[in-house]
Design a protein that fits this description.
The protein has about 250 residues and is α/β, with parallel strands linked by helices. Helix content is about 40%, strand content about 15%. The structure holds phosphoenolpyruvate.
Length: about 250
């Protein structure tokens, strides 16, 4: 089964999401080849939960607070997301790391908060262009993963999917080669093996994200070491997103 996770980022109003979901429901059938997740903006979560109903589509948020409750104007807690019916949350997206200055410690706290509230996690990791050019990908991934997973128990990893998202590939139309993605996935699994166990490493779900679209998906569809894709820009057009999903059905 392939995991296909859409990241709408800050796109589409609740009315637009409503229409998108009505159309998606009519054109996509649940099955056992694809696990579909939709990470949508906060204001659309309740209408999305209502429209998804009993369908096997997972509902995701794109962020959560690293604190529990109280004096955090503008923030949204894990408890609130759980209460609205969210299944998983994206943590550590490079846009949040860079623009909102989320460091590895904050990301570790957010992971703990999500786990405490029974939310699954899509943890994003990935190197910048200069780190890629100076062959630092392995070091960057190792540091991001070790700090993100600090203090976690092995069984908690069952609720975490790691998305390898090279920053230079996000929204740029550029992608690493299939070989480079496999290499990064191997690094991710070896860190988990070292810090937890061989079993945890084998069981870890890994996605690739960065400029996946309907034109290039077929060149990545047979990746051996990863379990699916995180799709940003290309999920916004339903026809294109369905083309991506249909490659796996
Ligand atoms: C993302 O932002 O997680 C992403 C994968 O974006 P895009 O597909 O647009 O590169």
């Amino acid at each position: 089964m392939k995991k296909i996770i859409a990241n709408f980022k800050m796109n589409k109003t609740p009315s637009q999401i409503k229409q998108y979901l009505i159309d998606l429901m009519a054109r996509y059938k649940d099955g056992d080849k694809v696990e579909l997740g939709l990470s949508i903006p906060y204001p659309s979560l309740p209408i999305a939960k209502f429209l998804i109903g009993e369908r096997k589509i997972k509902l995701g948020a794109q962020n959560l607070s690293d604190e529990e409750v109280g004096k955090n104007t503008g923030e949204v807690s894990g408890e609130m997301l759980k209460d609205v019916g969210v299944n998983y949350v994206i943590i550590g997206h490079s846009e949040r790391r860079k623009k909102f200055k989320e460091d590895n410690k904050t990301i570790n706290n957010k992971i703990k908060m999500a786990l405490k509230n029974g939310l699954e996690i899509i943890l994003c990791v990935g190197e910048s262009l200069s780190e890629y050019n100076t062959l630092k990908t392995k070091d960057v991934l190792t540091e991001q993963l070790e700090s993100a997973f600090k203090g976690l128990y092995e069984n908690e990893l069952e609720n975490i999917t790691v998305a390898y998202e090279p920053i230079w590939a996000i929204g740029t139309g550029k992608t690493p080669s299939a070989r480079e993605i496999e290499k990064a996935s191997k690094v991710i699994r070896s860190v988990i093996k070292e810090d937890f166990s061989a079993k945890a490493s084998e069981n870890l779900q890994i996605l690739y994200g960065g400029s996946i679209n309907a034109k290039n998906i077929s060149q990545f569809k047979n990746l051996k070491y990863s379990n699916g894709f995180l799709v940003g820009g290309a999920c916004l057009d339903l026809a294109e997103f369905l083309q991506i999903i249909n490659v796996f059905i």
